[in-house]
Amino acid sequence: MHSRRPFYIFVILLFVAGIGASIYRGMQHNVPFLPGEQVQSWAIDAKISFNGRNQPAEVQFSLPNDPAFDILVENTTSPGYGLTITDDSNRKAIWSIREASGPQSLFYRVTLVPTGKLALHAEQEPADTELYLWPATEKTAAEQIVEDVWSRSATNLSFAKQLMTLINDDNQSQNMSLLLSTNTSTKLFLQMLHTKGVPARYVSGLLLEDQRRRQQLTTYVQVYQDGEWHLFDVQNNKQGRDNNLVLWEYAGGSVLEVMGGSNSLVNFSMLQDTRSALATSIDMMMTDDALDFSLYQLPLEEQSLFKGILLIPIGVLVVVFLRVIVGIKTSGTFMPVLIAMAFIQTTLLIGLIGFLLIVSFGLMIRSYLSTLNLLLISRISAVIIVVIFIIGLFTLISFKLGLSEGLTVTFFPMIILAWTIERMSILWEEEGPKKVFVSGGGSLFVATIAYLAMSNELVQHWVFNFLGIHLVILALVLVMGQYTGYRLTELKRFKPLVGEK
Question: pLDDT digits over 226-236, tens only?
Answer without folding.
Answer: 888 899 999 88
